[in-house]
Amino acid sequence: MMGGRGAGKTRAGAEWIRGEIEARRAHRIALVGETLSDVRDVMIEGPSGLCALRWRGARPQFQASRRRVTFETGAQAYVFSAEDPDSLRGHQFDRAWSDELSKWAHGVDTWNNLQFGLRLGERPRQAATTTPAPVPLIRRLLDDETTTVTRASTFANRANLAPAFFEQIIARYEGTRLARQEIDGELITEVAGALWTAETIDAARLKSPPALKRIVVAVDPPASSGPNAAACGIIVAGCDAGGDAHVLADRTLHGCGPLAWARVVANTYAAYMADRVVVEVNQGGEMVGTLLHQVDRSIAVRAVHATRSKHVRAEPVAALYEQGSVHHVGTFRELEDQMCSFSAAREPSSESPDRVDALVWALTDLMLRDKDIIPRVRRI
Questions:
Q1: Torsion of CA 318, 321, 323, 326, to 10 degrees
Q2: pLDDT tens-digit series, residues 73-103
Q3: 5, 92, 280, 368, 377 from 374: Cα distances, Å
Q4: Is residue 375 over pLDDT 70?
Q5: Helix (H, G, I), strand (E, B) or coil at 39
């Protein structure tokens, strides 16, 4: 099932499992989520999870130490995380429920191992619930003729959600590409004229980076603060000895004040032992650098001024992706969605591409400028 945020996907998955168990068709079940805590807190003990449902008999019993849920019928469900695909090896099931596939760090490997384990009974079956994103696993499942797809909009579950959620959050994004994906549950693939495609990003994706000779933290600060302000784009990237770039982290923040994002930048700079912070100062001028130094005087700051349009600045960076010279280490869903919708024809009302702006500044500094390297000692 694909659906928007708060569309009742988790409840639908839990109810499907309950129906299979009470009909005595399910005996050994796999519960797979992004992390072990997600399985426990959302799929099992959450307000829409298995333990929150009304059962004909006794409620299921969750044994956290054994990562196992036991049902009155004798059926048992086992907990697995997409962070550890190999944990599924050696197990076998007749039913499985996977939640939020689009967010899985090792989606393809986890899914493949789960399929090898679905081998019990006459007709093993599985359900997957997620807000869709154009990642390889989701596209593969939608292209599979054996997949049955159901969709639900966030609006379909409005009666169970807080009115403020619709007034303040949904209204802000309604009508945008992001809303079609996150609210309506549509799989949005390519945008005509977009500088990046999901295939290009996926082709160069890595699980871990090589040794890096330089690391930068790039910041695209907002002009204002508050819940309706633009986000503060914060991207970490580095380059290796061969000249390739590696996107390491997206630390973008929403609705925070200058001091809050400055602290996050300083912490990120220290955590990654970065060589410098690259910050756009069109909005704040010299105050941006001053603010960062108030938080941490040791930060090396390079101030950059935007003199060309966002699209023109992004074009040479997009070309580096086409050459296979930029690698994403892991998956950065919100950044990649923004990249794949970024084109010269973007509507003025569209969400500001703060993540893309920060990405462009980071990769420009690493790959498209003369390198004045700042020596630093990096612990190994």
A1: 140
A2: 999 999 999 999 999 999 999 999 999 998 8
A3: 44, 54, 19, 17, 10
A4: no
A5: helix
Cα distance between residue 352 and residue 350, in whole Å: 6
Nearest alpha carbon to residue 355 among 327, 377, 334: 334
According to CATH, the topology of domain 198-367 is Nucleotidyltransferase; domain 5 (3.30.420)
Query: What distances in angstroms separate CA 203 from CA 199, 218, 240, one per listed residue?
Result: 6, 24, 18
Instruction: Give the start-to-end residue ranges of the domains of the chain.
Output: 2-164, 198-367
Pairing assessment for the beta strands 61-63 and 68-70 based on DSSP bridges: antiparallel
Identify the DSSP state of 330: S
Query: Are 363 and 326 a contacting pair, CB within 8 Å?
Result: yes
- 0.85 cut: is pTM over it? no
Whether 329 and 207 have beta carbons less than 8 Å apart is answered as yes
Q: Is 289 helix (H, G, I), strand (E, B) or coil?
A: helix
Is the Cα torsion angle 343, 200, 369, 303 positive or negative in sign? positive
* 109 backbone dihedrals φ, ψ, rounded to 5°: -65, -45
Domain 2-164 - what CATH class?
alpha beta
Most confident option among 54-63, 186-195, 278-287: 54-63
